[in-house]
Task: inverse folding
């Protein structure tokens, strides 16, 4: 997932992206937070995905989100 794709996907699913750059080693940590798709009559849950880059965090969240979406089966 490219930088532009990550931002577009996060906007599409109303996700948030956070960065921690206060690590003593100077390493950055990225966190993508998105709500899961909501099955009818049920509440969504949160996906919290970590990555060393924005793209890694967004890609991890997208993978989990897609897995949950596919588990719903065909929509009627």
Result:
């Amino acid at each position: 997932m490219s930088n532009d794709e990550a931002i577009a996907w996060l906007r599409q699913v109303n996700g948030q992206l956070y960065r921690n750059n206060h690590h003593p080693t100077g390493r950055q940590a990225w966190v993508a937070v998105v709500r899961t798709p909501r099955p009818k009559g049920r509440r969504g849950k949160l996906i919290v995905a970590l990555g060393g880059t924005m793209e890694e965090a967004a890609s991890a969240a997208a993978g989990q989100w897609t897995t949950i979406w596919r588990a719903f089966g065909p929509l009627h």
